[in-house]
Amino acid sequence: MTAAYDPQNIFAKILRGEIPAHRVYEDAHTLAFMDVMPQGEGHTLVIPKAPARGLLDASPESLAAVAATVQRVARAVKTAFAADGLTVFQYNEPAGGQTVFHLHVHILPRFDGVALGRHTGGMADGAVLADHAARVRAALDAG
Ligand code: 5GP
Predict the structure, then answer these.
(1) Among 23, 38, 93, 99, which is disulfide-ready with 43 (CB 3.0 to 4.6 Å)?
(2) Distance CA 120, CA 38 (A)
């Protein structure tokens, strides 16, 4: 049986503003911010505001909102980093690779010939993440 949603998970704390994040986009139903241990330059996460542990317990409405934000942010990320492609993925439960138990979708800009970095590897420099977030926000603003 799947565990219950824990409102003390780190992304719930980001949503409540209890811990900081390099935010790039927010609307009524979703939030996007930079991954603090990026698997590559521009690694961005999209989460629903409604509590959900993963894909299976989210409402269809919340998933639809997440999908729309993923597309919007993915376009901006691709532009901001002049990427050749994108990798988008989402993990469910420890067996599926999930480490933070609030539904999230990973967006990674990809470059020809460059391998994906390690999942939850090293912490990125805060100034670098701030710069990357500003680049994504600028691309979003440019539409
Ligand atoms: P999962 O393994 O659950 O799919 O991915 C969780 C992701 O959240 C990882 O890529 C990890 O680097 C990222 N992450 C973990 N803690 C934090 C945090 O406090 N802030 C941010 N921005 N990302 C985090």
Answers:
(1) 38
(2) 7
Domain that holds residue 106: 10-142
- Could you tell me if 43 and 62 are in contact, meaning their C-beta atoms sit under 8 angstroms apart? no
Q: pLDDT value at position 32? A: 98
Residue 5 belongs to some domain of the structure? no
Give the integer Cα–Cα distance in Å for 57 and 132: 31
- Report d(CA 61, CA 80) in Å as an integer: 29
Q: Residue 11 Cα, ligand 1 centroid: separation in angstroms?
A: 8
Tens digits of per-residue pLDDT, 11-32?
999 999 999 999 999 999 999 9
CATH of the domain at 94: 3.30.428.10
Other CB atoms within a 10 A radius of the CB of residue 13 amount to: 15
| Mean pLDDT of the chain, nearest integer | 96
The 10s digit of each residue's pLDDT in 73-93 is 999 999 999 999 999 999 999
126 CB near ligand 1 (under 6 Å)? no
126 Cα to the center of ligand 1, angstroms = 14
pTM of the model: 0.97
Q: Which residues contact 131 (CB under 8 A, 6 or more apart)?
A: none
